[in-house]
Specification:
2 copies of one chain form a homodimer. By secondary structure, chain A is mostly helical. Chain A contains 10 helices and no strands. In chain A, helix 5 (78-95) runs parallel beside helix 9 (148-167) and helix 5 (78-95) crosses helix 10. Chain A is elongated, with a radius of gyration of 18 Å. The relative contact order of chain A is 0.11. At the A-B interface, helix 7, helix 9 and helix 10 of A face helix 7, helix 9 and helix 10 of B. The structure holds a DNA duplex.
Chain lengths: 191, 191
DNA sequence: AAATGTGGAATGAACATTCATTCCGAAGGA
DNA sequence: TCCTTCGGAATGAATGTTCATTCCACATTT
């Protein structure tokens, strides 16, 4: 197994185990075993568990953004852009439940809070689509005149909740239902 | 300190520590210290940590319901009832951040998933308001014709997210903003 | 009233377990 | 042969739980 492969195996194993059992249910020894690697080997690739967790988040985030850019254009009308991003996100989540559940774990942890804080306060890139779109929508009075953060909550709160319920088997989100869910999110934010 | 007091002290200490640091950041020894009792004493009142966690949830849930029933009447129009429950919930959460953060911890854990499952599938009481209200609203065609679970997600997803953002200091939810947030939730579920 | 006895509650040191991290001998490539 | 990489046992810190002992309020006896 090449160096690169080994690293990828570690990341994949960590994703699976953390998504399924949470940070505290995924000991390094278990990650190593599933990756087919010695426990000490992980530390040749990642300084410690926190670094592994953060790196994993960056990888997942990157893949999500890659999906969202596809077919996205700031030329299209705001509502259409919103629907594109919303359905893109929701579809990605339910097609990649492991990554979704990992993100949930991450966001509901001190890591996630710190991340969110630095993203909202500091003007980091990322979230770019969303911030730009929402600010434009507010200034053009097509979205409600609410703080950006609340608009995010209105739009993505249901989206996350729906993805979770689908993955847990509480609802079967097929195409039509996904579209109607995102449209309902739009109803929440639109003026 | 009486027996009852001691029990309450334990519960209060557990609430504070778990809300602030999560289940894994609140060792029994620390809970005992904050409650002003010996570590072993906790086990005279609660069989083990899981039982303490579950009991704490039941108490918090009970207090929330108590607030919601106040002034609630199935005679009032559906929209008004929705706004009553929504603002009641949101206000309670931001006025009781410890309890809110505890609920978040609980829901985002195996306990919470199991709880949600038994509530949605089995026909447990509790959630009664909501289920009844939403079912009536759908049958009268004042809410969208979506699965109940998705309507819950649309209504409470933003609510939870907003409460979290308020508590983390990302937005200052004063009265007017609370009302407008819940109205936006209504826009999401209404037909 | 004082002294003694009793049973349940409280205690916290001790234990077993789990986990992240380290370390060093072995393996493998140049 | 030398040097890098690997593996997994060893380490030490942390945590949930237990249990032998202490404590105390009240009953009983003198």
């Amino acid at each position: 197994m090449s160096k690169q492969d080994k690293r990828e195996e570690i990341v994949r194993a960590a994703l699976e185990l953390i998504a399924e059992h949470g940070f505290h249910g995924a000991p390094m020894a278990m990650i190593a075993e599933r990756a087919g690697v010695g426990a000490g080997t992980i530390y040749r690739y990642f300084e410690n568990k926190d670094v592994l967790i953060a790196e994993l988040f960056r990888e997942v985030e990157g893949k999500v953004y890659a999906v969202l850019v596809e077919g996205y254009s700031t030329q299209k009308p705001i509502r259409e852009r919103f629907l594109h991003l919303g359905t893109g996100l929701l579809r990605y989540y339910i097609e990649n439940p492991l990554e979704f559940r990992y993100l949930e774990q991450f966001y509901n942890s001190p890591f996630g809070v710190a991340h969110r804080r630095s993203k909202l306060l500091g003007n980091k890139e990322g979230c770019y689509f969303f911030r730009e779109l929402f600010e434009e929508a507010v200034s053009q009075q097509v979205m409600k005149d609410l703080p950006l953060v609340l608009l995010f909550d209105l739009a993505f709160g249901p989206l996350f909740a729906a993805a979770r319920d689908h993955i847990l088997g509480f609802v079967a989100l097929e195409d039509a239902l996904i579209a109607r869910t995102i449209e309902a999110c739009w109803d929440g934010v639109k003026r």
